[in-house]
Amino acid sequence: MEFRQSSKLSEVCYEIRGPVIEHANALEEAGHSVLRLNTGNPALFGFEAPEEILQDMIRMLPRAHGYTDSRGVLSARRAVAQRYQALGMEVDVDDVFLGNGVSELVSMAVTALLEDGDEVLIPAPDFPLWTAVTTLAGGKAVHYLCDEQADWYPDLDDMASKITDRTKAVVIINPNNPTGAVYPKEIVEGILDLARRHGLMVLADEIYDQILYDDAVHHSAAALAPDLVVLTFCGLSKTYRVAGFRSGWLVVTGPKQHAKNYLEGLTMLASMRLCANAPAQYAIQAALGGRQSIHELTAPGGRLHEQRDTAWRMLNDIPGVSCVKPKGALYAFPRIDPAVHKIHDDEKFVLDLLLREKIQVVQGTGFNWPTTDHFRILTLPHADVLETAIGRIGRFLSGYRQ
Ligand code: PLP
After folding, report:
1. N or C end of the chain: smaller count of CB under 10 Å?
2. Of the residues 274, 289, 304, the one at which a domain ends
3. Of 103 and 8, which is predicted with more confidence?
4. Where does the sequence pass through the membrane (predicted)?
């Protein structure tokens, strides 16, 4: 008897933790040290969990051994609601769902929405979970282009041209993974306008909403469109550096009377997985109400700011490589000029880099980017580590032929 994966998985792609990992593991088992620059996991790069969050979780642990309400504990949902009320949004505790990270909530939100063949507008490049989950739910991911020449902002004409009568929702990832773009108000409003005209649900992945550099300002989609049904996703993984706790939230805003049936479905999916991990739910109130802030890391002189600068400068110093300066998040998405280094297969490029230099990055096509001329690198490692790693990538590229 042979057990085979479901054919439902045949079109699903998730390269951030993809097959190259097996090679990285094998190298480590053979005694090599591999610099893993593939997952945005702050803990791997010496970022500590804020003490206040740890203390609160430890204090609550003896009382966190039971299932909670499927939407999450009230104290945490209230803290989340207040976070958005402070931005002028109308949010009630019942509009908040807590989940095992944003990832779980993305999966629930998309599954509850789509009929087979329904279309979702998703950016290219994207955080590939959105495409994978849409495909798995029987939907069709339709990618709208983000324009590298325009600081990686979404191309609204391209987006408009891809709307059909099957389009159900539009995904906005702002600040963006992998590009680091932070969208100006007009761009967010332009997307919202299309959603308004075509009756689309807005799925706003704002997990990096506090990770901003220079003069970047985050414009929350829900705050700009109280007349639209917007689901906003955020959590503790990045801003509070506790990705392993698996703690996130989803907030529903807008004319919920138009989404009553959908929300019943979402509530049912939330109850089917009983509840999110309870100790991690107790981290939310401490995080949102506490003194700790990521601002000291992202402001000039802060660790994340310096690392972003180093990565951007070093990448642009490589002949044939250019990189738009990230204004937010934890990544850079450089371009390898095909006239200088022709990469036919970017997964092979990433594998060759790993085998030769023991550095693991992720190929651009892993983010549903249509051409083989980009890769994503984290800006999480210390500046000296980034300097060495990017220096080695430059040397590797100079002699690389495919
Ligand atoms: N959304 C984006 C844009 C991300 O980059 C990530 C993680 O890298 C997630 C969602 C998932 O976050 P979580 O740890 O909350 O599941």
Report:
1. N
2. 289
3. 103
4. none
C-alpha 401 – ligand 1 centre gap (Å): 34
pLDDT in tens, 123-162: 999 999 999 999 999 999 999 999 999 999 999 999 999 9
Tell whether 121 is covered by a domain: yes
Res 293: pLDDT: 76
The complex's ipTM works out to 0.99
Kindly give the interhelix angle for 260-272 and 101-113, rounded to the nearest 10 degrees. 130
As a whole number of angstroms, the distance between CA 74 and CA 70 comes to 11
125: cis peptide before it, omega within 30°? yes
Tell me the CA distances in angstroms from 9 to 13, 20, 135, 365, one per residue in order. Answer: 8, 19, 8, 18
Geometric angle at alpha carbon 235, from 232 and 239, rounded to 5° = 120
User: How far does the centroid of ligand 1 lie from the alpha carbon of residue 122, in Å?
Assistant: 15
pLDDT value of residue 292? 66
CA of 342 to the centre of ligand 1 (A): 31
**174, 237, 241: which to mutate for ligand 1, most atoms within 8 A of CB?**
237
What is the pTM assigned to this prediction? 0.96
Residue 312 to residue 301: CA distance in whole angstroms: 16
pLDDT of residue 85: 96
The answer on 321 and 190 residing in a single domain is no
Q: Helix or strand or coil: residue 61?
A: helix
pLDDT digits (tens, 9 = 90+) for 220-262: 999 999 999 999 999 999 999 999 999 999 999 999 999 999 9
Answer yes or no: do 220 and 96 share one domain. Answer: yes
